[in-house]
Amino acid sequence: MRRIGCHVSIAGGIVNAPERAGELGCEVFQMFTRSPQGGAAPKITPEIEKEFRGQMEKHGQKECFIHAPYYINFASSNKAIRSASARVIREELERSSQIGAKYLMFHPGSAKDLDRKEALKITAEGVTKVMDGYKGSTELLLEVSAGAGNVMGDTFEELRDIIKLSGYDLGVCLDTAHIFASGYDIRTAETMKKTLESISKSIGKNAIKLIHSNDSKIGLGERRDRHEHIGEGKIGREGFVYLMSTFDLDFILETEHDKVKEDIQKLKDIRNKL
Q: How far is the C-alpha of 164 from the C-alpha of 161, rounded, in Å?
């Protein structure tokens, strides 16, 4: 695998995303299916579904992945927010299955008014609510958080607990900027080995299904989410060499589009030298 792509815009409709991905040099890509900030989701009609699949083939895109909206919060003390979050994620799973997306990843949310144990419990309950009775083809992934504030899932141990409590064998999306911000180092062969040991002892290496490949504007363990172009941040190019040597998975960039084509090429160059 190790196919490389980035997050692309759905301006004008999701059917435009595969062409944008192809123009950027993507082999796979990520998108939203609705506004990440809120509002009703545009309907995916059979005509849109057919056109989207045709555009995927036309522009050589092997897979697409869906990112859930940002406002999702399974750890909120407000039951209505938790219920709405579960409803939206279930909708997104169904919508993603319609168009043949492989994965849907989401951030578990933030526990502002609850202790960690209770927040883990209700987060897992939300995941269970989403998954109960689901029969679609798209797989749900938990994304590792950067650790800012009281966000959930900023350690592999917390992700393990959420997965275990939910009763469903979910996969994980590993974001390099997020794990770096949470204190997991990948900059040298030795630190990559230690991070892999942490993964293996908690969720297991095979639980990692997708890589969000982003350099970081902030330092190790500084617990903020700030993406940087590959090789221009605090992780550095070598970190991505070690990462790509470790994981035979698809790599998705979420860097600014001013230089995302260059980032895609940098990752392809690393891959070609392995």
A: 5
